[in-house]
Amino acid sequence: MTDTPAFRPDARSPRGFQDRRARDLRAERTLLARVSAVYEAHGFEALDTSAFEYADALGKFLPDSDRPNAGVFAVLDDDEQWMALRYDLTAPLARFAAQHWETLPKPFRRYAFGPVWRNEKPGPGRFREFIQCDADTVGSARPEADAEIIAMAVAGLEAAGLARGAAALKINNRKLLNGLLEATGVTAAGQKLAVLRAVDKLDRLGPDGVRLLLGEGRKDESGAFTKGAGLQAAAAEAVLQFVAAGGGSRSETLDRIAGVIGGSAEGDAGLEDLARIDAALTGLGVADDQAMFEPSIVRGLEYYTGAVFEAEILLDTLDERGERVRFGSIGGGGRYDDLVARFTGEPVPATGFSFGVSRLAAALRAAGQAAADAVRGPVVVIVFDGAHMPQYFQVAGELRAAGIAAEVYLGTSGMKAQMKYADRRLSPAVIMLGGDEIAAGTVTIKDLDLGRSLAAGVQDNETWRAARPGQATLPRGEMIPFVQRILKG
RNA sequence: GCCGCCUUAGCUCAGUUGGUUAGAGCGCCAGAUUGUGGCUCUGGAGGUCCUCAGUUCGAACCUGAGAGGUGGUACCA
User: I need a surface site. Which of A198, A225, A446, A474 has the fewest CB within 10 A?
Assistant: First the structure.
C-alpha cells in the first residue's frame, strides 16, 4: 500500500435518518396490515405512487427556484426539471387524481402507505424519513365523508392495539374560527394566520399565553419576543371563549360553540357541518369518548378548508428512565377542497387522514400494548466438519419444508461460539450432526428454550454442561416432530 | 432559523489547578471447558479524548470558529 492512509468514511446514519431492525419492522408491518385491512373494509382501494414528484406538483409551499432544497429533498433532472421526494401522501394523491380524473370512479377513495421525506431539522421522535398511512376520499363534499374518515381513524387506532380510552380523535372546523373572526371584523389574512398560530399553542401556553399572542405579543422565558396577532381585547376574549368550548359530549360542545360564535354565515355553515358529522358518527357507532369536538385543534395553516382532525394519545406513558412522555398527535387530517384544483382548475372537494406509523408504533410500545417480544431466530444447524456441509443443508431443507425457519451456521468458529450464536439469535433449538450421529443415522437436538429457563438455577458450569438440558439424540426421521414440540413450548 | 447546554472505548460515564504509557463498569473476542449457550476466573482487542485554528516548552483540559447531539423557542405541507 501507499504512505497516504486510506480514506475511511465514518460508519454513521445520515442525520435524521434511522435504521430499523427486525423487531421494529415486525411491529410496523403488523400495524400497516391491520390499518390497511380497516381501510379496505370501508371500501378504499390501495394506491402506490412514486417517491419522487416534479417539484411543482408538490404544492405551493416549496421548493422555489432559489432554494430548491428548503423543506424537501430535490434534485435537478437532466432535462432541467426539479424533482423532489414527496413530503406527504396527499400531494401525490392530488396529482394522481388530477391526472386520471376522467377515468376514475368518483368519488375516488384510496389508501396508501410508505415513506415520506422532509428536509428539516430532526429532533427526538422527529425524523427526515418516516412512514405515513393515509386514506382519502376525493370528490365528495359531504360532511359524512369526513365522518367516515374519522370513524376509520378510530377503528384504525383500535385495530392497531390501542385500547379504548388510550387515544381519541379531536375534531374541529376551520369555518368556525373564520366565522368568528369575520364577525369581530378581522379580515386580514395575516392576522387570521396569527390567530390560528396562537390558538395552536393553547395546550402548551395556556389561556393566558394565548391571550398575549392574540394581542400585542409574548415574551418567553428566554427573553425572545413573539409578535402577536394584534386583536382588540374583546375579539381576543371571544376567541378564547371559543377555544374553551370543548369538553363533554359532541352535542354539548356544539351547543357551547353555537353560543359563542353565532351570527356569521361561515360560522353557521361550520356548525351545520359538525352537526352532520356528529349524526353520521353516531350512526357509524363512534362514541363521544372516541371522537370529540375540540375547538383548539388547528393543524396546518393554509391547506385545510373545513373539518380538521387529530388523533391523540391520551395515556401518560413512561420512558426507559421512568420519565413521563407525552406523545400528543400521532396522526391528523382534514378537508382540503383546493388541492386538486391546482392542477385542473376545477374545484374538487376532498378529505383524508394520515397516521404517522412510526410514532404510532412508538406510542404502542410505550403504552405496553405492542407485542414487544424480541424476534425469534431460526433453528441453527451446527457445523462440526466442513466435509459434511451437504448433510447440514439437507437437514435445514427438511426443517424448512416442514415450515420451520432454519439455517446452517456459516461462520468458521467452533462449537461453543456456534451455541452462543444460536443463543443470541434467540433460536428455539440447535441441530447437532457430528461424526457419531452421521454414522448412526441420528441427530442430536438441543432445546435452547428449556436450557434458558433452567440456566438460572444452575450454579457451576460443570453441572450445567453435564446435565445437557433438553438434549436428545434420536433417529433422523423423528427430528421434525421433536422440533415442532419445542416450538410449541 | 434564534438562544442555552453537551461531545472521552461499541454503550453508560470517570478523569486532569495544562505535564511522560487516558481509565472504570457493561459489552465484545479468547482460554480454563478437544462435541455444548448461563455463572465464575484469567487474558486480549478496541480511543484522531468531535473537527480545525490559536495560546503554550507542552493542550483531551485554556481561547475562537465549525460540526454533531440535546433542551427551549419560531416555523411546520
Answer: A225
